[in-house]
Amino acid sequence: MRYLWIASGFLTLCFAVIGIFLPLWPTVPFLLLSAFCFARGSEKLHDWLITHPKFGPPINNWMERGAIGISSKIFATVSLIATLSVSIALDLSSTILAVQAVILGAVAIFIWSRPSA
């Protein structure tokens, strides 16, 4: 089982790295999942990840205070607005737009209700 946790940690870490380069692909949730997997599979890999100069700070902010960085909040909000704007531009049905608006609104409320890092 330990190897499955380690493999899952590396897979989600790869997804996090992809998120650095793709605008709408989330990075921090995959980092958090990677830390979770490494904590169950390898203490050494978990320690490496949470002390990493680039990956560690967002993980530690979340683990210690449930905090999200202000730049991440702004970027996420812009991404949410862009997603809804594309859906409107594609002239999707009003039902789909309404459901999407409610979900994206709930995500925005959650993001902005968290403390800032």
Question: Would you tell me the overall average pLDDT?
Answer: 92
Query: What is the strand tally?
Result: 0
- Indicate the proportion of strand residues: under 5%
Helix content: over 70%
How many helices? The count is 6
Uncertain runs are none
Distance between the termini: 34 Å
Q: Label the overall shape.
A: elongated
What report would you give on this structure?
By secondary structure, the protein is mainly alpha-helical. Helices cover 79% and strands 0% of the residues. It is built from six helices and no strands. It has helices at 2-21, 28-41, 43-51, 56-65, 70-89, 94-113. Helix 1 (2-21) runs antiparallel to helix 2 and helix 5 (70-89) packs antiparallel against helix 6. The chain is elongated and about 50 Å long. The termini are far apart. The relative contact order is 0.12. The model has no long low-confidence stretch (mean pLDDT 92).
List the helices and strands and how they pair.
Elements: H1 2-21, H2 28-41, H3 43-51, H4 56-65, H5 70-89, H6 94-113
Helix pairs in contact: 1-2, 2-3, 3-4, 5-6
